[in-house]
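thought: fold this chain, then report.
action: predict
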Amino acid sequence: MPDEPMEQLCRKLNLGTILAAPEPVFGGLLHQMMKVETDHGAYAVKVLNPRIMKRETAVGKFIFSENVARTACLNQIPAITTIDSHPCLNEVEGRY
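observation:
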């Protein structure tokens, strides 16, 4: 039986072994947010809407948005960013 996409993502990014089923975090409009607990820690994983990701400019806009958030953090402006050691956008089984 093949691994689930979230297990593949955790393995790809060395986030650890998932300890419990990922839990949805409610509040988003266009994308899905999941809480994933592993033996290395707890993570928030945003699962991007596949319809939006089919748009020609979507990937570039997400990378730009992450760069803005990272710049804000570097200038002591509160913002949530991706883990520094990982790319800000990852693809597993055609999903981002």
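thought: worth noting. Residues 58-74 form the longest helix (17 residues).
final: tokens above.
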